[in-house]
Amino acid sequence: MQSSREPGPIAVLLYAKQPDIAARIGELLTSHGMAVTTAVTVSELQDAAGIGRFDVTAAHTTGIQTIRQITALPVVNIDAFVFQSAARADDTKAASRFDTAAFVKRLFDVASPRKTGRSSSEDEARTVLIDPEGPAR
To answer: Whose CB among 21, 39, 93, 125 lies 3.0–4.6 Å from 45's, allowing a Cys bridge?
Structure first.
């Protein structure tokens, strides 16, 4: 039988190679009551993984393989929550929108089994892959 971890905030290991994006996502998650450790280099990721007890990781698509090589934690793909909005008439490129509510919910959903000591299903441990275009018709 698995034992429950102590109650507390969900511990997220955030791997984002761009410091400004890492800081913004870290602030977002902290504002939602999560304990966030941010790594922007592979060395920082290895150091954090070696000393921290995390419930879930978050990374852009390009960092997922690296996280999987270093940890056995479930990964939530940040890019899966970025959607392209239609370009405005005065803009030359499409604007993007980040679905904050869905991202935060997914982190809580994936981390919950680890926090409560329940076993997680394979689906909870897989990377989130969502087609921004919606389901195929």
So the answer is: 39
Rounded Cα distance between 59 and 75, Å, is: 7
Residue 77 structure tokens: 């793909």
Question: What distance in Å separates the CA atoms of residue 88 and residue 93, rounded to the nearest whole number?
Answer: 8
C-alpha dihedral sign at 94, 107, 125, 63: positive
Residue 12 forms beta bridges with which residues? Answer: 36, 56
Give the pLDDT confidence score for residue 108 in this predicted structure. 92
| pTM exceeding the 0.85 threshold for the entire prediction | no
Sort residue 102 into left (φ over 0), alpha (ψ -120 to 50) or beta.
alpha
Q: What is the four-CA torsion angle of 69, 77, 43, 48, rounded to 10 degrees?
A: -90
| pLDDT tens figures, 33-89 | 999 999 999 999 999 999 888 999 999 999 999 999 999 999 999 999 988 766 655
